Structures are given as structure tokens and as C-alpha cells.
Task: structure prediction
Amino acid sequence: MDYETVIGLEVHAQLLTKSKMYCSCSTDYVSAPPNTHVCPICLGMPGVLPVINAKAVEYTVMTALALNCSIPEYTKFDRKNYCYPDLMKGYQISQYDAPVGKEGWLNVDSNGTTRRINITRVHLEEDVAKLWHRGDYSLIDVNRSGVPLMETVSEPEISSPEEARTYLVGLRNILRYLGVSTGNMEEGSFRCDANISIRPLGSKDFLPKVEVKNLNSFKAVYQAMEYESRRQRKVLQEGGQLVQETRGWVEEKGITVTQRSKEYADDYRYFPEPDLPPLVFDREWIEQIRAKLPELPEARRERFMAEYGLPLYDARLLTDSRALADYFENSVGLTDHSKAKMVSNWLLGDFSRLLNAGGIEIENAAISPELLAEMLSLIDKGTVSGPAAKAVFEEMFHTGKRAAEIVAEKKLSQISDSTEVRELVKQVVADNPKAVSDYKAGKQQALTFVTGQVMKATRGRANPALVKDILIQELGGK
Result:
């Protein structure tokens, strides 16, 4: 029997607030010594009263609006009861049947087409403490307990591991555009639990689903979904039965392992949080937040193609990061729209390579949009050739110097004097008789080789178009 894969994702994102969800303690749990950013509320002491973080509510409303959700006028908090060592109170203050946002969607690119993945809900809760396992005992750091945590739950409509990864990248990009979360999976500020099941092709009935945890990278999500999809099919092929359970992803072995039977809502014994009042949203306030939303990745991608004439590939990569998209527009604004593709080529080529190699974010790069625009102007004027510009650009990246200064220091100005170039060409032709013979025999690639030798001899300074013209003349005009 043929089966299809069905995936739903539950994504938790820590919000970039200064204080925790229900108290005034700092949310900086990464650099602070263990158990220093805590108070009686964080520690779950008897008799304490939580207070709602207004900024966290605003960030959650922003996200819900960006994900096309409806915002009910009424929302409330609930107690989700379970006893884990990292949950100080023995319950988590979360939301159950009245979330901040519901019934939204996110478009994802899948196999060359755009698919809409519906979003069930966006709700707000608190993070738990962090456990440090040390052999036969564990340590607990309460600094993370109470950090505002926003959960986005998709409908079970994702059809493949690759589509799941694309959905996650798209969601993270939106959160970063909004400035509500770092979206860093490796640091734990963006975490994903995946529900995956299979069903007979064409059927509407789900087989028992499995929730997979411990997914701390986009690669892990993809690999775990691939493995679990195969495992479930294999169980049925061998005559076994699938059970609803929670499994953990073991990165080192590339497998999932059973952790516990899957909980149901009844197991958590939800009831309204008695210490927090329900919230009633003013519609004018909601519309004020909507008006402040930035241009989001999908809309910006479409505009880049329409306004700057960029291909889809370039527009998609440039708009994956708000900082990169801003850099691109600032650079083009300092030149003109006709240079948009040239700017894109530099940003997605040499600039991205150097940023990745150095582990540097573009906003911290030594090359500003102004410096890049100046270098492109030198290329446009013929002051420096394209090949030499690569060396200039790398020097700019490492030093922050202006292109004109580097060109003067390293004597990299373009050689456009036809007499000088002709002498260089004659010398290269004399030194490469086989290539000359190949060209005259009809092998066009030989011309490319000889051109490269001239450029090499001039350290990329010779005018490439002039070199080619003179070479053809010297080689007999073919």
C-alpha cells in the first residue's frame, strides 16, 4: 500500500523582551551565572502573584497579524499541569482555548509552486528552567524559567520533510523581520516539535501520530522527519502497529527513540489561571499594531522582482534576511536601479562568501553600502576591471578602506591603453603556441585560455573587452 506523509509543526520562539513573562527578572539567561536572574515568582514560591508582560502580548499580536491570523477580542491564560523537574511550580501558565491569534496561514515554496500552510493558533506562555545532566545527577538553572515563549501551531498539512524545513525558515524570517525573536535554533530561542504520521494515499484518516522532540536545527528537523517517515512505513510493512507516542531525535545515531506515551489535553488538566485577568483587546490598538508591521519577506520579494527586475532566485535570497534586503536597497539607492543586478551579484557572491567564512553578520561588516557603491562606480568608469575588483573588494572587507585608496596603493587601476595591452597580448601569444594553434584549428575555448593568461599576467588589471578584441586581431580575426 502507498502512504503519504503528514506533518504538523509546533514552534516555540523566545520573545525579545527585557523582562520575563510574569515578573521583572531579566531574560538574559545565556551570559548570566546560574540562578542569578530569579525571584520568588520564577522559583514558584507559594503565595506569589504573576503580572502579564505587556510587550510580550504586543509581540505575539504582531506575529499573529503577520501570519494572517484573526485576533479575538478576548484572550485568557490557563494552567497547564504537569510535573517535570524543570517546571518550578508544577504547572505552566499557558493558553488553551482562547489564544491570542487563530486561523492564519503561511505561504511556502514547494517544488516550484507556492503552497499555503494553515496555522491553527499563535499563543503565549512561559519557558521552563534548564537542566544540566551530569552522569547520574542533574543540575538546574532557573534563569530561563519564565522567559516569554510564543508558540505557533500549524495544521497537519505539511507533506514532506523538505516542506517542513521550508516552512520553518519562512516562519523564522518573519520573526526576524518583526524583531520579536532572534530565531536562533542552535541557542534554543527557536525550537520545534514535529508531529508526523502517515496515511493511505488519498485517505483522510490519520494513523497514530508521533511527536518528535529534541530538534535543534533545520537539518535535524529534516533528518528526523525523513527517518520517522521511513520507520513508520517499515513498521506497517512488517505487520506491526503504530502507537501514538513521543520520541526523541538522537543526532549522533540519526534515529528517533521512544520517550513516553503521548499526552492528551485531558492529561494536562487545563483550567483558567486564577491569578491573571482575561485580556480584552481594543480594536484600535490592534489596527495600530497592524499599521506598524514592516514589509514582510514575501511582499518584499515580489517588489524586488517588479521594481528592480531581479530574477526570483536573487529576490528570494536577498529577502531571506531583513538586514541583507536593507543593505541591498541602500546600496542600489546610492547608485541607480540599472545597477540592481550588479549589486545583487556582489552581495550573493563575494560578500556572502566572506561573511560566511568570517562568521560575520552583514550589519557588522566593514564594507558599508556607501563603500560598495563607490567601488561599483570605479568599475563602471573603467578605473578598475572586474577581476581586479575582486581583490579590491576583499581588501575592503578586511580593512574597511575605500576602493580608490586600495587601487592607488596596490596599483590596480585598469590598463586600457591599447598599445600597452597589445604588447602584453603579443608576449602571451608567443608564449602559448599550442593554444594559438588550437584556436586556429577552430577550438574557441583556446581563446578563453589565452585571455586568461593575459589577465593573469596583469593581475586582472587589463581591460577584458580590449584584451579580447586585440587577441582576435593578433590571432587572425577568427
Summary: Residues 297-409 form one domain. DSSP finds 16 helices and 15 strands in the chain. The two ends are 63 Å apart (CA to CA). The mean pLDDT is 90.
